[in-house]
Protein 1
Amino acid sequence: MKSTVPEAGPTPKLSIDHRTVTYVSGPLLIAEQAQGVGYDELVDVIAPDGDVRRGRVLEVSGDKMTVQVLEGTRGLDRQGTVVRTRGAFARLPVGPGLIGRILDGAGVPIDGGPPLLAVAERDVNGAPMNPVARDHPSEFIETGISAIDGLNTLVRGQKLPIFSGFGLPANELVVQIAASARVLGSDEDFVVVFAAMGVTQREAAYFRGQFADSAALERTVLFLNLADDPTVERLLTPRAALTAAEYLAWEEDRHVLVILTDITNYCEALREVAAAREEIPGRRGYPGYMYTDLASLFERAGRVRGRRGSVTQLMILSMPDDDISHPIPDLTGYITEGQIVLSRDLHRRGISPPIDVLPSLSRLMNAGIGAGRTREDHSAVADQLYACFARGRELRQLCSIVGESALSEEDRRFLAFAEDFEQRFVGQSGVSRTLVETLDRAWELLARFPAAELKRVKPDILARYHHYKDEMAETS
Amino acid sequence: MNTQTLTDAGTLWRVAGPVAEAIGLHARLYDVVLVGTAQLPGEVIRIDGERCVIQVYEDTAGLAVGEPVVNTGQPLQVELGPGLLGQILDGTQRPLRELARRGDNPYAVATIARGARATALDRERRWDFSPAVREGDQVGSGDLLGTVPDAAMAHRVLVPPGVSGIVRNLRTGLLRVSEPVATVGDEEVAMLQYWPVRQARPASQRLALEVPLVTGQRVIDTLFPIARGGAAAIPGGFGTGKTVLEQSLAKWSTADVVIYIGCGERGNELAEVLEEFPALVDPRTGTSLMQRTVLIANTSNMPVAAREASIYTGITIAEFFRDQGLHVALMADSTSRWGEALREVSSRLEEMPAEEGYPAYLATRLAEFYERAGAVRCLGDENRTGSVTVIGAVSPAGGDFSEPITQHSLRLAGTFWALDTALARRRHFPSINWTRSYTLYQLDGWFADEVSADWPVLRAWALDMLQRETSLLEIVQLLGADALAAPQRVVLTIGRLLREDFLQQSAFDEGDASCSLAKQHTMLTAIHAAHDALATAVERGVAPDTASAVPTLLEIGRMRAWPEAEMAQLSKDLTARIRTQLEELR
């Protein structure tokens, strides 16, 4: 039983007890004589044995209210169960004391410490930010990972998911990013708000080990909803975490990196609740409003004009069956500003991090790179690497059919480049690289091509950075 | 939502997501009602016995059964008049800048407060009205009363549809939008006019579509052009560059007015437009691009019912400018999100779903939107013509074009620009697939007259080359390039040049973001000439690999960066050098 129930808003309505439960099933109960109850209100459900659970009003219709019970409906009945309404909404107490705490999926401390010292309480649903107030994100974040910094640049205020698969090292990648992320020319650290949704004990232990040791905890807030915690609470977890992040960013001027894992578990919970309500399902049983629901989370990233802080989101998403067209990665990809895709093939070949750069993308890259931000050649070199690697990959396919001997010398150059690129540029075996190292390494790889072949790079940039070295000629 | 004669009141009975039901309310279908003590605007979308079903344009959290619902007696309508250009409005036409200016937010960040109201047009601003008629003149619907300077143009104040008579009480000089400029017949006419968004504005005649909307995008203008007044669908999976393409079109199209609807998309993208557009200069007027643009923003986290309305708000504003004799381009990004809003409301109504959970009337609604595109002779005696071109992005689930919104859009649009995930992953942008895309508009005649007589021939040649290359590449995939005859190897080389050096275009490169028709013609002519020279060399017996490796051919890839003024001469030189190099080969 959870002992602390978040307090109601500043001016709670008189609490009213309803002893009129008529229906209990799955996570839902329906109670009658519910006049005056507001849609989306937070209620207490008091079980016959006195256990207090939290619930949310999903629908009011005539004198009936449909309530979704966060901790589950086991043990509830018609006669002894009381629904207590207080005119309150799901709120999170926020304050500087958030940092360093470990909370459950609904924002209640589980680290044995005191209750949260709140300076205010915030509706966990937030409110849609006025697009006019947004500042276009453009500050480059150095993650130390070449495939991201060089080719799919992350910027402050961006939302970038990692499309992973079961068994792929997404957790390790995220931890590495969180540990080394910094903004060029700035020594401000990120505050990490970490929200685990439906993760296993093993994963939770890993993240606790990484984020909750004494040094890292000073800049971390953890929200943990484990796989065997209530499903419905999982829908609240990212909202509570983002509410904490927004408070830290907009009111305490902190740069916040929010890590949400795993979006797939969140969507499963969404589907479970939708099915319990007998809603008309959309693709693969997921509710038709899943896009809107996910957007209400992801759109809470950004920068705001006139504010120093920022909210950057990294989400881990395990693609069921590695299928990128599955509704969860599909809808996510339409909302987020790009995606980093992990590849099972690269992972098997021992390349770490196993980032497949071709389907990966950062939509905000162009705003964050170039002269004055990173380096003048950044954009051109990224384009050129992509073009050469894409051609090399095509040839690799062709080569598997017709054999390498059927390729021209030019084609073999591209083929060798693709292999080298994966091994020496993408692969870095846990060692962080600075941006300059990343870009210089790119030029090293491109040195094998004559200047005329590098059509994506303007002549003046080529003159400064390109040093043609015909490796093929030297080796043969 | 303006004016509010309260005709009737009822009480709230049910709330579930964006849908509410009221009982005891006397309302017509599509009347705008104010729901609850917070007075959230909504629209009656179904009448079922006692109950009126309402889609609510704002977050419904906290609404309780028994709260009042009041009917305004008006359909959902927009305010039309000077002062729209350069604005950013939400789906129900609230001015977002104005809302952001008010400091009434609890989070230290400008959010959109629930129930916040503001009128789209500033009631206090004065406009300098110069009459074009005299008192005593007889005028009818669409006739010009006078003009006021607005943004970079003269905004025409017209007699509203359905009004006619003798002009009296004509005024001149500084006036507010709501002050009458004249009395026509018995009606006072002000600059501010209202129009219900779900009803198309009338015009005197529909015109044939014979002039292209020049977009500055090579793959579009040359291969798959769109007519002024036409409609285009751009379906593409995520990451295929729909939004970048829509923004390029909004920037570089030769339209007088651009309406850009961000429908269920990202807030940061609108922030980008708001940052970029004011800084870009419209080459035709010399003023900032923002001065010809109206942004309608309903981002994905804003209330879903207002997203449904945003498309209609946008197209009604587009028609208003069309009626002034202007060419309007409307970009909707994305119609899928609009369809999803429709689906969400429909499922809350427990309607019988058709394909993929979308309501059965999806096709009808889409048609009602796309068919408002067109070129028209406007009402009024000026003989004005205007057009609304609609370009709708579609976000098919899983990138699969067989889904309902893509399929219905294809039926309605005259141009289909299919964005291709495989091309995007190879960083071929714009990722318009040249074998799947098409245009139904017959514009070859215009290009032959206005650009060059050989345009249709060159276009057909390029399409043919690309088609042949695609078929040959299939063989290469199976057997290797050695299996091809020498002339076929030439097609592969030219196909690559066309793809990499002509079709690809960087939206982020200042010199390449927009390409004039003359430049497009020069580039294509050069590639055509290279083809002839290559084919001749190979016919003479030169090995195709040797011929294709001629270094001057790679220079074609630099043409996009050449300055417009030197284009013709540089191209002539290059072509000559390619010929010479190939002729020297043995």
Note: Confidence is low (pLDDT under 50) at residues 1-12 of chain A.
Protein 2
Amino acid sequence: MIGRILGSAAVAIAMLSTVSVTTASELSGPVSYVIPFGPGGESDISARFQQPFFKEKFGQDMVISYQPGGGGAVGWASLNGLNGDGQTIMGVNLPHIIIKPAQKDVGFTTEELNTFYMFHYTPDAIVVAADSPYKTLADLVADAKANPGEVTMSGSGKASANHLAQIKFDKLAGTLTTYVPFKGTGAAVTALLGKQTKAEWGYTTVGAKQGDAVRMLAVAMEERHPLFPDVPTFKELGYDMTGGAYRGIALPNTADAATTKMWSDMIGEINNDPAFRQQMLDGGFAMLDIDADGMADFMKARVEEYLNDAREAGLIK
Amino acid sequence: MEFGQFLAALTPLNLALALFGVLAGTVVGSIPGLTATMALAVLVPVTFAMEPASALILLGAIYTGAIYGGAYAAILLNTPGTPSAIATTFDGYPMAKRGEGDLAVALACFASVFGGMVGALALLFLAPPLSKVALAFGPVEYFWLSIFGLSLIASLSNGNLVKGLAGGAFGMLLSTVGVAEISADIRLTFGSQTLIGGFGVVGALIGLYCIPVLIDLVAVPDRHLKVEENVKAVRIGDAFRIAMRSKFNLIRSSIVGTLVGILPGAGGSVAGLVAYSEAKRTAKPQQKFGEGEADGILATESANSATVGGGFIPTLVLGIPGTPPDAIVLGALLVQGVRTGPAMFTQSGSIVYTFIYGLIIATILMLPAGLLIGRYAYKSIVTIPKAVLVPTVGFMTIIGTFSIRNSVSDVIIMLCLGVFGWVVAKFGFAASPIVLGLILGPIAEQGFVQGWTIGAATKNLFGMFFGRPISQGILAFTLITLILPLFLARRKKKANMEQAS
Amino acid sequence: MKHSSGKAGGQFGSLIISAFFVLAGLVTLYDTLSYTDRDSQVFPQTVAIILIICASVSFVVRFIKPTDNGGFGEGIWWRRVLLILTMLATCFLMPVIGFLPAGVVAFAGGLIAAMHDRWTLSNILLYWGSGAIIMVVFYTLFKFALHVPLP
């Protein structure tokens, strides 16, 4: 599936390169980029990476602010009430914007959000401490089979990408592990490093950030991450599992088509800057280039996939 | 750790940035609702154009200043400017009310500089070993730490323990409103969209502490703070003597602050509360905590300033930010191309050391800057006529609460909580236990749920909660804090009775 | 919850607040029944039970042993009410007429509420003038220096 995404992304890149982007003049001042979480998470870090490129390419400041609450719900519920003149954008995250409205009324629906670009994703990965007895994924699976429930795995929140991945993997491998939810990836990693849990359901970004302190057992990508040539994919090991948490940007739905197009082109241009791509890959992210035109199809597929996973996991009815 | 990096931190530009940062941070911190996080987030793009080390010095200085600035509003308006200054209100405001606000401000300044230095020096010399503290603290330890913090309710409930406990429990219930942090349910919103984000700590602090003060202020014509006959600008000499007398309190509180600062799940508010609790526990009989005791201010302010340096230890060594401002500095480092984490001290050592020296310089600059700003803050608060002071503070609470999440409903929630807090306080349900519940509730809940999950999985629940050495230590301290006062009171009573007979 | 600040008020207010806390605990217990995840139930249920016990004890103690402690004390009610009502009005006006004009309402309310001296021309000019400056300065600081999207 990621292959398909990357394929369509390649087409998008080809299209982008032929269209000249001269839209910066339409911005009338500093742009407000709202992150509906606190600082320090993957959403924040990737926005920080975009910030200098935006200033350099389009001459305007990109001001990042944080609006945490309700696991992002506060921000997204307020998004469509904001001014749609193109001066305000907000980060969006999958699976959050799909799972949350499906669980309960949180003040927004997936379809209401005017997501115009998906620019990266963080592939799921199983991470263990460097001195863990689990050298390979097989070690972990063997332990989980021998001692059902005793393998504890930390992760960020419940009904999150980490949690869905844990449930899915348990099903694929026929194991029973215990998922311990923490407040954000940082806390989940702390628990792992402190030996509070035996492993962590995290992302490739954890491997990039923690370096030698951790070992990744497998990553949920089609092909190995360029930063970690030695870490196998789940697919190689026989588990048909790809995916992770996707991140993009949305405008208020009052924004007109021209503004949406302008933004899609601008973020696309940043995303195609080799220096930006390199910085993101070094951070452990995986690039994604879904622009405004391809968004409907992309979201449709993701909604189906995530809702299906969540339903099977018993997280939604 | 060569001398060169120290000199690099001393360039005129870096010194100017440190001074500017401390001044700006102090102002930011003193305005309730304006947080260091917000100021840093806005300034990060400015720092892209700078040398990495200079940028970091500026960010670190603002953070340091903001934590100290929180004390002004706490002392002069009974409103913690930042959550770190919650415990500063306990003794700072009573002190200001009886006319010694100038002394309180100076005490806070000395304590902050001392605590800030201890934290920064720990960061400089002991960062790698101390970072292990962050890892040694598991869910259960956080759970017991929050219980220890909650034990303070016993002494904050103005002599009515049952009411205090009820308030604390109510505060904990408030903390659960909205989307649950680590489980996915939506709780206690009763279908309202407004409540989905829950009660933000900063907004709740403004409401519960500041609004009651305003309501009481307008109702009677008396002055806000009592003014002594001959107002001395800031009583530096007195403050210094008191601080010297309480050096053990300062040292203990700074160490507590550094250690709590290292814990990614705790932060300045918890550090202040724990240090306050310890200072109170070891108090001499004649000291009256809660009624304007200098040691209360010294303990809180040294502890919360020490969390700045302490918090950077896991941020820099493990790449795990302890507080939101730490997270922003970490993000700025990443964008500057500095890799944090285990290898950082060796790979990007020079930038990191220049940053730490910058933090130390900023802390030292806080002494003159803090005393100077403190002088004007105190003078203006006591001299401004009430008819201007009240609407100004009222306007600040509105704009400050709004800007936390750009939300009007947050302001309305803040006002409602304020009126509620004012009413219940009039009948013996003090605001502080509610605030303690609100702040420590999530730590307790997450620690408990995670500890329970892990304990159940490994089939060792008892060992999980009672068998770990750090947990046992915290539990012991909690029991001592709770039982010792009862024991002493009984012995005193007995002695009195024997004397009488 | 607005009753006179008489001596009986202390007794009465405590009873009402204790009853309110008991009610809050019961409502919480009811609300937790709808949660899907056991993890989200444990904590609120435990705390609600503690709240109900403490508030009940407080209620019963006050009932058996009435004391006169508590009460709203001296003070002028219209000033308190004016202050809070104008601040609330500001919140509701903010999205409609913009932050600064709405802020003037709260400021004016606070000023009038807190004005215990005689109005003279000089202090009218001084107070309102300084008020205008303070508001514009804060507005500028938040809107343009800190990029807060004030309406």
Note: The first helix of chain A runs from residue 2 to 18.
Protein 3
Amino acid sequence: MRLTLINVVIAVVAAIAFAALNAAYLVWAERRGAARIQRRPGPNINGPFGLLQPPLDGIKLMAKQLTIPGGADKAMFIAAPILAMFPAIMSFVTIPFSDTIVAKNMNVGILMIFAFASMGGMSLVFAGWSSRNKYAMMSSVRAVSQAVAYEIPMLITTITVVMITGSMDLMEIVRQQSGSILHWNIFPVLGNSHNLLMPFSFLIFFTCTLAETNRAPFDLGEAESELVAGFHTEYGSMGFGLFFMGEYANIVVGSCLTTILFLGGWNCPFGLFPGVWWFILKLYLLIGTFIWIRWTFPRTTIYGLLNLSWKILIPLSLFNLLFTAGLLKVF
Amino acid sequence: MVAYFTEIFNGLLSLFIGMGITFKEFFKPTVTVAYPYETLTMCARYRGHIELVPDEEGNPKCVVCGLCEKACPSDCISLAGEKPEGGKKKELTKYNLDFTRCSLCGSCVESCSFGAIDFSKEYNLASTRKEDFIFNLLQRLEEKKK
Amino acid sequence: MNAPILLQPDETFILNVGPQHPATHGVLRVKMEMSGEYIVNAETVIGYIHRMHEKMGELKTYPQFLMNLSRMDYLGALGYSHCHVLVVEKASGIVVPERAEYIRAIMVELNRIASHLFWFGAFVMDLGGFSPLMYALQDREHILDMLEAVTGSRLTYCYFRFGGLYNDIDDDFIAAARRFIPRMRKSLKKYKALVTGNIIFRKRLEGIAPLTPEMCRKYGASSAVARGSGINFDVRRNEPYSVYPEFDFDIPVYHECDSLARYMVRMDEIEQSLRIVEQGLDKLPGGPIMPDKKPKIIKPPAGDYYQAVETARGSFGVRLVSDGGKNPYRLKLRSPTYSNMHLFDEACRGMMIMDALAFMGSLDLVIPEIDR
């Protein structure tokens, strides 16, 4: 694909549209899912199945006044919600949905996604620090330690996958997993590493995705029973809306990455008809699990979270890295 | 070392058990009532605000003894009556209930030995004005009569 | 524009938790002196919802004050009414028919289950899990429906009368209660698997906020707060009243002293209350629900009377000083949460804020009951 101006515009518009649409409708899905789990109907008044709820919520948020608290750092305060949304959208540029649908494939795709993902943590820090609110500040301090603690096991696990495939190109990673479920990185019996510990790697990666996207049970940043609303306590109007959408856009990116790295991207579990539909199916199953987890578990503590990362996830992921390296040497 | 792994294993297991429970709940039918669209009928003993009970002719049974007024802990009830010329019994001329202060204790209904007041089954009471909750029960009874 | 905050490394800051805060479940304000996430000092500030119930008790006649008791603790209202009617009956020598006393016990125990269920849900919500609250409310709804069918109200009951009851229970109620017991037992199993066994939940409560028995005694704590610290005290057993001696039930006591112990005590109490309801329904005698002889105007002879009961939140007492008139001379209400809450200031020092708020949840505070 040639990098022409039209291509870039189309890709950017498609990425923004996909991210925004997902963010809006995942809010709906989350509310419906939570309601089903709690045996309520959920939003069902506006439109069929309440499908008009997200646009109406958006209109409501936009109609509200954006207040900036006195004493807040204005520039940072305004920058923070944009910073929450923007890295997620940028990441979509390099995510391949099938072997043809990709805006711009790069041979360092993973690197780019992680570079942008680490910026997501910055938005929390900016928001919490600039709000001049004690609750928000405590939340931003938590967010820093959380982001640091969970990027490490996530990266180590990614390196394990990169070692198996020998490439940082997301397309290449999926191509090497082509075939049935036994070729995928989650359970690579027939893959080139034969590493049976990979399901645990998948769990580690998934846990880190939960933590990186600030989802329950790791939603310490916005822990509403302690910190009121955490970093977005002082945000109203679309500032709040952007944080909200950013959270869901990040979930989509995280789930896309999990699908590509472990679940064989657009490959079918039985090796039949590979295509974008498999990718979408896996993506939404993962997102469904995110929602399912959120409405099942209580929140962890900040030290519980750090203990989990430093005492369990990092040693185990390191061990798996070494184990995989050994296996690759043997086979 | 063994304890370390058993803790991880048991922890993971407990998480999966919890997820299994919410998964089962996901497919059960909803239990809520979509309130403004569907309403429940109140049970027979439901205690709403009080209402005057009419006799066969539709006139209040009340004999203006004033016991309910005295029994009320919050001075919600104010009533008045006068003897019509030539009549033997007092007739009710005013019966006001200040529902803003009522705590639905039912002391008034209990104190009435003539069965002249009873609980209504009304619960859709919402207004932005305080005056809407000062009920003229006599007027309500007359409206009902028509 | 205000000057930016510049904190020195050893400097603390004041965090106002409440009066409007999601964790305080009402209008309780906690002034916390924080060093980062750690609490250096905390001070609970109460009085935001003070309604002078004690003074109202002096100004109103005895029957007029009946409905105030259920406004104190809106979750376990019947236990409080029970205490009030017991002390007035004791003072004026009214004999309650046996059937009425049995029904009272059944109702109070059902109300206790409802209260514990709500606490369970709210407590897990304090810890960040939302769904258990909804499941608990579904079970509670059955109790409220049953109580509504008999008493006429769902939350702030005015059901007990001096000498008896306002309404008799019917066969529908008995059938509904019998249906409810196995249902609740099934739900308890669900809660055990979903919440009690959950590793995240256990990690948040185990060993957190240890309260020594000495400290509980010092502050006069009761209910699960004391029983979770190994103090085997329950008014129903230690100072028996009503028909409780007739029932066979256990007092759950845990010796771990931590938040989990307090949680476990309450969950076990639900099971024990179910046992009492079951036995009460079996033993329910016939007869009237109001005594034949009852003074028309209640005027207890001059004297000083006290009665304590075990409510859902601990030992509640009413001290009644009568001068022989239509109104009490003094009506002192000893509310259990008031004592339980004051533990918080001392116990939460050095804790992290999230542990402290989980600890506050485990105390089962109902703010209108503290402020009265």
Note: Strands of chain C lie at 13-17, 29-35, 38-45, 160-161, 164-165, 303-311, 314-322, 330-334.
